[in-house]
Amino acid sequence: MTIGRLAEITGVPASAIRYWERHGLLPQPERQSGQRRYPPEAAQRIVMLRKCQQAGLTLVEIREFQQERSRRAAMIRDKVAEIEQRMVDLDHAHQLLTHALQCGEEDIVVCPKFREQMASWDAPASGGGPG
User: In b/e form, how buried is each residue of 86-103, taking b as 16+ CB within 10 angstroms?
Assistant: First the structure.
């Protein structure tokens, strides 16, 4: 299929497809009369690249993700740890904002419950702070 058709069925601009090719994230397609021609599985790889981007992987990490299992395992473990930390940070943000909406204190920093909540975030993992 042509790059235009591939862009159409994946929802990814042709410029992004060419960019990914230049950076080794997509294999170079065959050419017929100077035009790129992609096999049907190219669409699956593009969908996978988009999902990797949505998951927060950088281009370097995506390239490594496509390597053989032994080469990608360390990167994946590091990324999982990073995501888990972001999840903790997001949970703290949710707790903070939810409490701030309900807090009766004029200055939230002096609120005892808020201060207790913040102190619990610095404590070793114990299943989370007060909600």
Answer: eeeeeebeebbeebeeee
CA 103 to chain centre: 33
Task: Tell me the three state secondary structure of residue 25.
Answer: coil
Give the 3-state secondary structure of residue 38.
Answer: coil
The dihedral through the CA atoms of 78, 84, 87, 92 has a sign that is negative
pLDDT digits (tens, 9 = 90+) for 59-105: 888 888 888 888 788 888 999 999 999 999 999 999 989 998 998 88
Give CA–CA dist 72/23, Å, rounded: 18
Task: Give the pair of three-digit tokens for residue 131.
Answer: 């909600």
Q: Over pLDDT 70: what percentage of the chain?
A: 93
- How many whole angstroms separate alpha carbon 120 and alpha carbon 36? 57
How many angstroms separate the CA atoms of 111 and 115, rounded? 6
Model-level pTM?
0.64
Q: If residue 31 lies in a helix (H) or strand (E), which one and from where to where? A: strand 30-32
